[in-house]
Amino acid sequence: MSTDNFKVVVLGGGPVGLTAAHALSRAGIDFVLLETRPTIVVNAGASLVLLPSGQRMLGQLGLLEEINRLSTPLGKVQRFDHQGNDIGDFHFFVRMKENHGFDPRVISRYDLTSLLFSTLPAEAQSALHPNKKVSSITTTSTAITARCSDGTSYTGDLLIGADGAHSLARAFIAPTAPTHPFLTTFRILWFRFPTPPSSNLFSPGTATETHGPGCAIQAFSAADHCAVGLYERLPSPTRERVRFTPEEETEVVRRWAHLPISPGLTVGKAYAARIQAGLADLEEGVVEEWIGERTVLVGDAAHKFTPSTGAGWNTGMEDVVVLVNELVRRMKAAVGVMGVAELREVGRVYQEARFTTVVGDCELAGRMTRLATWGSGVTRFLDRWFMGSQRVQRFLIDKGAQAVARTPVLEFVEVGKMEGGRVPWVGRENI
């Protein structure tokens, strides 16, 4: 089957949606992308960590040079307790570099989305439509249509829901399922502040974590700013969606203002110098149904977990790669137009390939957040003495190295050879 008469509607223009735009464009598949916000690139949101798997895929797209310019490599993570005592450094990022050849890197959401947008071909950029709030999704025997509140509508053969944790695409797939399927046990106060001048505490690439009862902090320093995430355990888990007020954000800061981000720098002092900030729930979970009638979910629409392991965009990127690979494979083998049954089979193979991995990623992220917030004497002991051991850290990272090496890549994109580490990449030998 030719790609000429096939069209995809993508909901969501965040990093995962833009990754889908790149993959579909490279595959020669026509698409349209609908984003609720007034512009595709918005200077807002927390920073992201690019893991080796994500960088490998960005290398396929020819973006590594720009990524290296816009992001900052991360090394060891200095860890402290609430009193500022040293509880042992993390060397996870260092070991990842040794295993896979890529430094994990920190990048602002703005810089990543700007890069993904600006490097799309002009024709693909013209397919991105901001300020499009989708109000309904309908299907016929031959197509799926997204209707927007401004009266416009967009029709295709397949709809990809990259529209986040509160996904309209997910509600279309499972209209009787809970509106808010993810469980929230933690919320995050995130903010960015300028890197203190003439300071060795936050030179580019510096990373710190503060652990203790009820609250943990992660901080990553780029060239000109430091990104902070403060994880606070809620009094009890909830499935309700909450929109926080500025007063609630101020109260979280007041409660933890005394905690050290690094020696000599507290949460209160850093927050007072903030460039941007926000307070949000950290939903966790993996929904059971990722596929419906001409519809499939990727990224946060299908699974959501805490940012403790930095896996967010990287996992959504892997979803896109597996889905588009399977779509291209089926289109090449198909005779005539692919119908509902064939598209559902594409989705089934995709979900089956990703589900177990994503569940494991979700559990790992939650486990790391719970260890860092010391919910019991056991977690405190494990975090201080077990996770603080470099021997244990090497064992844990090396245990997962083969899974990282098997991270999927686009099967239809040719690239030059990339340098690896001690664990060879699996799949496409030239990447």
TrEMBL record:
<protein>
    <recommendedName>
        <fullName>FAD-binding domain-containing protein</fullName>
    </recommendedName>
</protein>
<keyword id="KW-0274">FAD</keyword>
<feature type="domain" description="FAD-binding">
    <location>
        <begin position="7"/>
        <end position="331"/>
    </location>
</feature>
<comment type="similarity">
    <text>Belongs to the paxM FAD-dependent monooxygenase family.</text>
</comment>
<dbReference type="Pfam" id="PF01494">
    <property type="entry name" value="FAD_binding_3"/>
</dbReference>
<dbReference type="InterPro" id="IPR036188">
    <property type="entry name" value="FAD/NAD-bd_sf"/>
</dbReference>
<dbReference type="InterPro" id="IPR050562">
    <property type="entry name" value="FAD_mOase_fung"/>
</dbReference>
<dbReference type="GO" id="GO:0071949">
    <property type="term" value="F:FAD binding"/>
</dbReference>
<keyword id="KW-0285">Flavoprotein</keyword>
<dbReference type="InterPro" id="IPR002938">
    <property type="entry name" value="FAD-bd"/>
</dbReference>
<dbReference type="GO" id="GO:0004497">
    <property type="term" value="F:monooxygenase activity"/>
</dbReference>
<keyword id="KW-0560">Oxidoreductase</keyword>
